[in-house]
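Chain A, query sequence.
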Amino acid sequence: MVDYICLMFMRLLIILFVFTTTSNCWAQWKKINTGTSNDLYDVQSISENAFVCGQSSKILISKDSGKSWKSMPLSIPSNLRCLYFFDSLHGMVSGENARLQMTYNGGKTWTQKYVRTAAYAYDITFSGANGLMVGNNSLVVSSNNNGESWTVDTTPSIEKQLNNVAISKGGICWAVGDSGIILRKLIHQKSWIKINSNTKVNLTHVSCFSDSIIIISGGMSDPNQVGVHYNVFLKSNDSGKTWSQSIIPEMKSIFAGYFFTPDSGFLCGSNGIICKIYHPLYKRGQQLSGTASILNSITYSDNYGLIAGDGGTILRTTNMGGYGLTIKDQNIPEIKVYPNPSSDIIYVETKENILSIQLISNDGISTQVNLIENTIDIEEIASGQYWLIIKTQMGVTWIPILKY
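Chain A, predicted structure.
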């Protein structure tokens, strides 16, 4: 009887071990120990240096590409929601009361540069010396001296929370917020104008790839129906005059995004959902995160990606999250690539007109390739796994290839 009980106990232990390790074994993003259970809201990486901020004055800094983290003190306690670093030493954090504190020595000491009672800041960005910070009640403050001083911009009287802000290379500024709010101005102007978005979904991310190409995404849960979520993806090729729109049903609520190109990147949000973008409007794939935490921010630098989320969650990948799962296709062109694997020549066959072709390694590094008479010569590139990104009029197709 004792032997039987011991045997059953050992079997139970094995089952529990398999169950608790399965999610991590199959996760495409690895959860990193942060030593905190505080909710984390923003993450940024610059080469091997990475920075995270969150509630209860939590600031984490990594000097090894996000593998390990060290907590740094903050001069004036504050719940933090956003950060921006120029380099490994010079940066700033903000959040509660829009209190912006700046460091010049990698987080060892901090100096207050701006505060606005009862305000809340949600995002900061810079283009050169020109910076923008956005927050609740349509708050926008701007700086033209690397954040040393700030002044309030004039925004439409909409009293909505602004969640994200971006500046194009040509100095066109975009801010997005709740209830489908999109605002626009030129960098040296102090007044913003409202742009029609044709959506009431909360917008949480904006990226600019030129003065013309803008990508916006967002999501929210239905306040009256448990488990119901709405999300949206918007893309403009004409500086916001017109927008292409798509929903992303495989997502819950979208809270953050990061894009390498207008056609490739990541979205993340509630319930630990990560969505790899192959073409925003047509083709996407869910990825395994190994967590059900809310994911609030995502970044990518050099050969690694980081996601920050609730409960002290930091996820890390070194291969762009691997391949996407449950890929949703709509009007995807038929493209044949062979032989695969290959050591020298790859043939590409499709009935569609190929507009561009690109080769990206699993660590995000782009390699120049030329399509000549339906062939690509990869003999001179290093052995390894790559993504062949083929753009046609129907969209962008990502094809994994192996060079040996």
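Helices lie at 2-26. The longest helix spans residues 2-26.
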